[in-house]
């Protein structure tokens, strides 16, 4: 045999360990996405904005709990807290959503991801779950602080703690709706471009530019248009759903008898955003 035909053993070995499959890949992407949402495992620069937003939200919750304990004045209940923090939630998803999807798109690693057993559905599902969890933690942890402040200062004993807990649960449910809607829309917008600055600007524009539309529709002479005005903006849409489920909301939004329309639009908006995301990444996977 000539020297050109010699096979050299340079130490490569076949992988003989367990193959964990799609669920393990899903979990790894979810965990990485959740950590990346708060800049964990990254540079100090990546932690500044997420933790600045989280710190402000936590500070508001602590102040609210302290005022309630000392003066028995409720600045925010669990529902109005979410509505009041809407601007901070917008800025949070505008920074985090491009971090989760635009970086992969810009670096061109998606075809490599999808060459493995990973499916586009798994990738989108893990990213969506990670961002939705991050938004829920952003709102849910301060709500828990408000609950603890109310529970430890109540003068009604165990019944007071139980009543505070019954107030907290629907508040957490409202935060889940915020997380699902904001995560789905912001990921869809961020998936359009690999440039994080453009993606962040697009997310802020989508959420804020719809607000004036609500104002215009709400001053029309038609009562139907006024009742349906809240459908034009994600924030007022959530307030409308709150009004439908509770019979009141913190934005003084009058939805008339159209509460079910608000609920249907919320469901359809989240579903449509996820389906468009899936179509977008299936196209990338097929390249």
From TrEMBL:
Transmembrane regions: 48-65, 85-102, 123-152, 172-190, 197-220, 260-279
Keyword annotations: Membrane, Transmembrane, Transmembrane helix
Domain of life of the organism encoding this protein: Bacteria
State the protein's name: ABC-2 type transport system permease protein
Q: Which organism is it from?
A: Paractinoplanes abujensis
């Amino acid at each position: 045999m000539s020297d050109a035909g010699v096979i050299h053993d340079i130490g490569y070995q076949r992988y003989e360990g367990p193959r964990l499959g799609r669920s393990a890949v899903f979990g790894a992407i979810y965990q990485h996405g959740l950590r990346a949402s708060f800049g964990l495992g990254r540079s100090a620069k990546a932690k500044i904005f997420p933790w600045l937003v989280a710190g402000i939200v936590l500070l508001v919750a602590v102040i609210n709990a302290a005022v309630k304990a000392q003066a028995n004045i409720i600045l925010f209940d669990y529902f109005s807290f979410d509505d009041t923090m809407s601007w901070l939630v917008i800025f949070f998803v505008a920074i985090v959503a491009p971090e989760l999807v635009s970086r992969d798109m810009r670096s061109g690693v998606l075809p490599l991801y999808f060459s493995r057993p990973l499916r586009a559905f798994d990738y989108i599902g893990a990213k969506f779950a990670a961002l939705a969890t991050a938004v829920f933690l952003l709102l849910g942890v301060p709500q828990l602080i408000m609950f603890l402040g109310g529970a430890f200062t109540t003068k009604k004993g165990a019944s007071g703690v139980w009543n505070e807990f019954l107030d907290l649960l629907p508040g957490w449910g409202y935060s889940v709706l915020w997380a699902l809607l904001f995560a789905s829309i912001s990921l869809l917008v961020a998936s359009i471009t690999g440039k994080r600055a453009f993606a962040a600007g697009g997310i802020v524009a989508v959420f804020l530019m719809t607000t004036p539309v609500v104002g215009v529709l709400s001053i029309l002479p038609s009562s139907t248009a006024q009742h349906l005005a809240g459908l034009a903006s994600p924030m007022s849409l959530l307030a409308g759903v709150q009004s439908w489920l509770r019979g009141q909301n913190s934005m003084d939004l009058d939805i008339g008898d159209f509460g079910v329309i608000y609920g249907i639009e919320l469901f359809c908006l989240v579903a449509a955003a996820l389906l468009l995301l899936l179509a977008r990444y299936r196209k990338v996977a097929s390249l």
